[in-house]
Amino acid sequence: MTTVPVTANDSISGIEGVTLYVDNQLHSTLNQPPFNFTVDTSVLTPGSHTLTARAQDQIGNQAEASITPQVSALRVEIISPVNGATVNKSAALVQGKIYNSEGEIGVVVNGALAEVQAGDFAAIVPLQVGQNILTAVATTADGFQVQTSVTIDTQVQQEVIRFTATPASGILKPPANTLDVTLGAEAYLLNPISGYSWDLNGDGTPEISGTESKIVAQYQYPGLYFPRVSVTDTLGNIYAETTIVNIFFKGDIENLLRAKWEAMKAALLGGDMEAALQYFVGLNREKYRQIFTEFGSDKVNRIFSSISEIRLYTLYGRVAGCGAIRIETGGYTPIRSLLFEMKTEYGELRGFR
Question: Is 269 helix (H, G, I), strand (E, B) or coil?
């Protein structure tokens, strides 16, 4: 759904009504302000569409204006929790789907960066007592956005288990191509704890049981996982909590960041500093604007023309460390260390040294 606001004024006789047409077809008429029309874009085919607002005053005079927005096939959906659900926790695990995406997509849920893997996303969002509107906003690399919302109710805020994953995201590491993730559960129960049960994949089947409140899980494949811990007290009561773990292939992240680096480098060598700065994290752009200005074009060209490529060596949480190298006969020479800040599926250059 998209809201189309229309402003119409007539200081003499007043506005009788405003009618909206979508591709020359009557949509609806509003007879009093605010003239805010709700258009269901999901029924429109991807591409250009014409919206025309026609206003009429009390004596029959008419005036109209048109816009031609683009409708994308990109769509985002929250699948859990469902609309109208009651979630009596201090935070909600929000899961969703991205449809018809091409290229890089980032998702934010109520201001919290979501973990994204292929067409799935997930985020943990704090709640307040009462009504909570959960809004997921998906953004493409060129700034196009779509969003969706569900409303849930929180009657009480309960947090009997604090469940953490460290790191919450990362790459499979050689030589075994695995990633070790530390899962920890802090339980706040009235009765003593008798044991913990760990479902590492979130598939309903626990892989580990015991009395330890912290374990190391070894993940072997990329994907978005929802590990779940169940804590049992001495009276047999069971309390459970779920968190998020996002695992990537090293090559996928490396290729993504390499493309960002090459685009930034090409802009700098081409003399377009402002275009190059768009690949930096917003808070660091002014810093590097000053650095590049002080360097001057000759020094910038010497530095960046000597770099052959970059290689990823670590991804911990939302920060990726890369090495800028110069390939030579018989090997390569490290030149710079780079830090990329991951914004869900896409990265921005935090800085280099």
Answer: helix
Answer with the one of 10, 45, 71 that is the final residue of a domain.
71
Place of tokens 């050689």: 174
Comparing CA positions, the residue from 181, 185, 235 lying closest to residue 210 is: 185
Q: What pTM does this model have?
A: 0.72
Give tens-digit pLDDT for 63-92: 999 999 887 778 899 999 999 999 999 999
> What whole-number distance in Å separates Cα of residue 308 and Cα of residue 257?
14
Domain coverage including residue 23 = 2-71
Q: Is the domain of 171 the same as that of 131?
A: no
Paired tokens of 280? 């930096």
> What CA–CA distances, in Å, run from 234 to 25, 122, 339, 351, 353?
67, 33, 48, 52, 55
CATH number at residue 18: 2.60.40.10
Q: pLDDT tens-digit profile of 304-333? A: 887 777 777 777 766 777 777 665 555 555
Do residues 171 and 248 lie in contact, with contact meaning Cβ atoms separated by under 8 Å? yes
79 and 131 in a single domain? The answer is yes
**Token duo for residue 62:** 């008419």
